[in-house]
């Protein structure tokens, strides 16, 4: 028998017993408390610096940057990475010539002959991160073959890491800094506590304006000549006066200006020269926006010092900003002036295309980055988590949970158009990386299905556009077999063959069901029904009435291994389809029969503690929480909707399974144990049984636990009222 995760005295059962609603509230509140709704991190980024490739690797191509570099010369690149915990991280390295990679002062990797001769050679480098700042230094040497390399995350979909500028002069900037070609190897490398002046050389990209540019006003040096249209300069005025007071704004204009305070026009300056404007300010902060019109190449202004009791403050926190102003444009003369507050959270559209905010530093832009562990990210496990949170909020009447889910989703959706622009500008987007690099069902179907469910009750900025993109991807772009099955073409060296994964029924079918509800188009349900019929042909194990995890077309056989969560996805998704499939649908009876066959197979394999095992047919494998939750979810629905016969057996299994999880898998603080980490696939039982360990509070399981509890609670109410 598998070892218990927690002592019974530490379990949620000791606090809540069989009060399902209290257990749901505890699990949901724990998740919110550990993942508060912090906004994206906004950072300064110099577009003259090191850009990324599509796989989120930083591309150091120094022959292109320094065409006159000589063989034997050396370029150093330096950056830092923040880690909340001590942990190993995998990176992918390519070499364009000789290089040495140092981490925290220690040599980690030195290129060999094979690396130098084959820049496409992919090397996995594992680096132990210490808690806090970790400094990275590259030493690149120029040869006839080239100079440089690339460094990226081990998995850019699940962990698209970004580095931060390491010196105090650029604290808060994103990216790497680098030297001009050096003639000698340095005896001491930069690291924690170093500054850019320590070696007496200049670091790139340039941080300061030239003397000629510094002589201009900020608008002029950022946007160069502006012959027509306008740009915006935004800051905030803070008044310390307890009473409203008159405040004079004075300075010198290079062209005509319009001055707005809190969105209201306060003054119009029609010509260049000295200007004065008086505004009335109450206590607190007020948006100050100056619209600078271009004429004959001149635009912009300089603002005089403010009177006592008034100060400028940054309009929004931007790491790496050197002053209190943000700049946006250029806009065409006919472009409507955007709302400055809202424009930080979506791409700003102009007649000439998209744009975003800038800083008064050489070619330096404001970029949002996803730096929260979970909140504001878009991936398939979070789609499941938010699904559970959304349904919990509805069932328990918890508006706070609903608003948390809506805010998480909209944090993503309103940045969608920006993410595409950001990727085009800089090689890889700092936000919404999965949608910006959409090439699999994992990237869109799960989170998208939750988004569509949320849209049924709450408008979400940008969501409708994303909904159409995902629907088109699943229907018209995702790879399919001649029979219409959604399959995976080989895209990774670790999975060289085409494959069919039972997981993909969840990545596709619930989204199709929501599309049907959104549009009324039956074709989505036809597609969903066909997926189950075709997947059954390849993956079903009739003697056990359960499913194989994967069919590998290179080997041309199913794995014949009954991975718990993979099977959970199948019956979970089938219940989603049956819940919306019309009673007169031609394939409904066939799908109901399949649901009953699977239910019978899973029922036989329930463990003695009420949980199912990581490998369903291997009682020695650990008791796995996410598959247990999905079987309970499907069984409870099957009883409540009348899909199952002999309901007493299933009701008993539901009771045993839910109470087993409350005793074994959930502690009194709402932490969830025993959820299998994200998987690959194998023909070996040992891979699933021994290599795929479980994680605490893994997002593959939190939402599923909540959804199981919701169905258990609804079944209790249903049976109590019958």
TrEMBL record:
Keywords, alphabetical: Hydrolase
PANTHER family: UNSATURATED RHAMNOGALACTURONAN HYDROLASE (EUROFUNG)
Hydrolase as UniProt keyword: yes
One Pfam family linked to the record: Glyco_hydro_88
Keyword Hydrolase: yes
Protein name listed in UniProt: Glycoside hydrolase
Classification lineage: Bacteria, Bacillati, Bacillota, Bacilli, Bacillales
Organism: Paenibacillus anseongense
Coiled coil: none
């Amino acid at each position: 028998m598998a070892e218990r995760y927690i002592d019974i005295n530490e379990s949620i059962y000791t606090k809540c017993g069989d009060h399902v609603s209290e257990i749901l509230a505890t699990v949901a509140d724990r998740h919110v408390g550990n993942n508060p709704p912090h906004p994206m991190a906004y950072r300064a980024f110099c577009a003259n610096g090191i850009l990324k490739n599509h796989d989120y690797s930083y591309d150091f191509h120094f022959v292109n940057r320094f065409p006159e570099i000589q063989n034997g010369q050396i370029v150093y690149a330096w950056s830092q990475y923040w880690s909340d915990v001590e942990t190993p991280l995998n990176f992918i390295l390519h070499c364009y010539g000789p290089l040495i990679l140092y981490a925290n002062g220690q040599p980690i990797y030195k290129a060999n002959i094979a690396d130098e001769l084959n820049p496409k050679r992919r090397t996995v480098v594992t680096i132990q991160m210490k808690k806090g700042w970790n400094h990275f230094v590259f030493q690149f040497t120029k040869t006839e073959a080239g100079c440089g390399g690339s460094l990226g995350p081990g998995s850019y979909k699940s962990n698209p890491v970004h580095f931060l500028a390491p010196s105090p002069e650029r604290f808060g900037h994103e990216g790497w800094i680098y030297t001009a070609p050096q003639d000698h190897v340095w005896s001491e490398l930069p690291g924690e506590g170093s500054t850019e002046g320590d070696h007496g050389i200049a670091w790139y990209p340039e941080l300061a304006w030239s003397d000629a540019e510094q002589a201009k006003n900020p608008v002029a040096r950022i946007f160069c000549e502006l012959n027509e249209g306008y740009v915006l300069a935004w800051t905030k005025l803070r008044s310390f006066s307890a009473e409203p007071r008159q405040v004079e704004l004075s300075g010198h204009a290079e062209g005509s200006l319009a001055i707005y305070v809190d969105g209201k026009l306060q003054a119009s300056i029609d010509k260049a020269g000295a200007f004065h404007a008086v505004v009335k300010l109450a206590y607190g902060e007020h948006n100050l926006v100056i619209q600078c019109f271009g004429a004959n190449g001149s635009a912009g202004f300089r603002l005089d010092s403010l009177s006592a009791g008034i100060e400028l403050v940054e309009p929004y926190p931007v790491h790496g900003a050197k002053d209190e102003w943000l700049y946006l444009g250029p806009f065409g003369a006919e472009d409507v002036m955007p709302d400055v507050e809202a424009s930080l959270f979506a791409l700003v559209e102009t007649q000439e295309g998209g744009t975003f905010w800038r800083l008064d530093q050489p070619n330096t832009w404001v970029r949002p980055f996803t730096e929260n562990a979970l909140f504001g990210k878009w991936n398939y496990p979070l789609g499941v988590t938010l699904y559970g949170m959304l349904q919990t909020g509805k069932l328990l009447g918890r508006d706070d949970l609903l608003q948390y889910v809506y805010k998480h989703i909209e944090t993503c959706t309103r940045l969608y158009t920006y993410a595409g622009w950001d990727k085009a500008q800089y090689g890889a987007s700092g936000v919404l990386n999965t949608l910006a690099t959409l090439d699999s069902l994992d990237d869109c179907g799960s989170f998208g299905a939750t988004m569509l469910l949320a849209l049924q009750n709450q408008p979400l900025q940008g969501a409708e556009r994303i909904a159409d993109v995902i629907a088109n991807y699943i229907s018209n772009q995702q790879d399919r077999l001649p029979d219409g099955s959604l399959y995976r073409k080989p895209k990774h060296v670790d999975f060289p063959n085409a494959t069919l994964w039972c997981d993909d029924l969840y990545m596709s079918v619930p989204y199709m069901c929501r599309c049907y509800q959104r549009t009324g188009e039956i074709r989505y349900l036809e597609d969903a029904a066909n997926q189950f019929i075709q997947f059954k042909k390849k993956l079903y194990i009739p003697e056990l009435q359960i499913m194989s995890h994967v069919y590998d077309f290179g080997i041309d056989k199913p794995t014949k291994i009954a991975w718990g969560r993979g099977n959970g996805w199948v019956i979970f998704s089938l219940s989603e389809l049956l819940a919306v499939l019309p009673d007169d649908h031609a394939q409904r009876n066939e799908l109901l029969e399949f649901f009953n066959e699977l239910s019978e197979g899973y029922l036989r394999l329930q463990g003695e503690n009420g949980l199912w095992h990581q490998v369903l047919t291997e009682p020695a494998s650990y008791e796995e929480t996410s598959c247990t939750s999905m079987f309970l979810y499907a069984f409870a629905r099957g009883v409540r909707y009348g899909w199952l016969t002999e309901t007493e057996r299933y009701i008993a299994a539901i009771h045993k399974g839910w109470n087993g999880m409350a005793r074994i898998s959930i502690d009194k603080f709402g932490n969830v144990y025993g959820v299998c980490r994200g998987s690959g696939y194998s023909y070996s039982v040992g891979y699933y049984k021994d290599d795929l360990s479980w994680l605490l509070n893994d997002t593959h399981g939190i939402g599923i636990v909540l959804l199981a509890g919701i169905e258990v609670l609804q079944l209790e109410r249903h049976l109590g009222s019958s």
